[in-house]
Amino acid sequence: MPIRRIVLGLILIAPLAACNARGPVNVASDDAAWYTGTMPDKPFDVPLVDKSRLDPKYRRQVVRYTGPEKPGTIVVDIDNRQIALVQEDGSAIQYGVGVGKAGFSWKGEAHIARKGVWPDWSPTTTMVSLNPDLPRTRKGGLDNPLGARALYLYQGNRDTLFRIHGTNEPWSIGEQLSSGCVRMLNEDIVDLYERVPVGTQVLVKRNGKYRV
User: Fold this and answer.
1) Nearest one of 140, 137, 182 to 42, comparing CA atoms
2) Is 19 a catalytic residue?
């Protein structure tokens, strides 16, 4: 499938997501220019983003890490729009993310209770109350707001309803647009998904803290 057809299909469904923006997002007319090709994946290939269009601080990179968190921990920094996966050698793999709008961002300690590949999406009760016209479900695929992968965050046995997931709105990385979930480039969530097992600790910080 030509990349332009993929991109146009993604743009048409952008306003549908519960974990996506609450309402349409204004984007440039050259949306196809965000994409450079695809990465093989199953059952769909992953559209690849032109990294030159991202602020360098939101590109995947290895950085020095001096925080107290143990290796293997995912640290989500809401204020800086970044995720760090802590490594054994004093470094971290850092990714740029998009985060929730003011009043919708969550912080706290959680763990990954399950993982999804091209997951199905459905809105939360809150999202339906805010927008009754939202579809009640959407199968996984290129037109799905959760993108290529999703990591489901739980506290104990309770689903927090917050996810770390892919996005079909790459221009939203570094922005505060979603309804609370943490969104990554599809190629980045695929990378993170492969590195972390179920049970991984996730710390979501705001103002430098993940505890009230």
Assistant:
1) 140
2) no
| Residue 189 three-state SS | helix
pTM of the model: 0.83
181 belongs to the catalytic site: yes
pLDDT, tens only, 99-133: 987 645 678 999 999 999 999 876 666 666 667 76
Domains and CATH numbers, the chain: 3-205 (2.40.440.10)
How do residues 182-191 score in pLDDT, each as one tens digit?
999 999 999 9
> H or E stretch including 84?
strand 82-86
Contacts of 66 (CB under 8 A, 6+ apart): 90
Token representation of residue 185: 């480039």
Q: Which residue among 14, 49, 153, 181 is the active-site one?
A: 181
Place of tokens 């959680």: 110
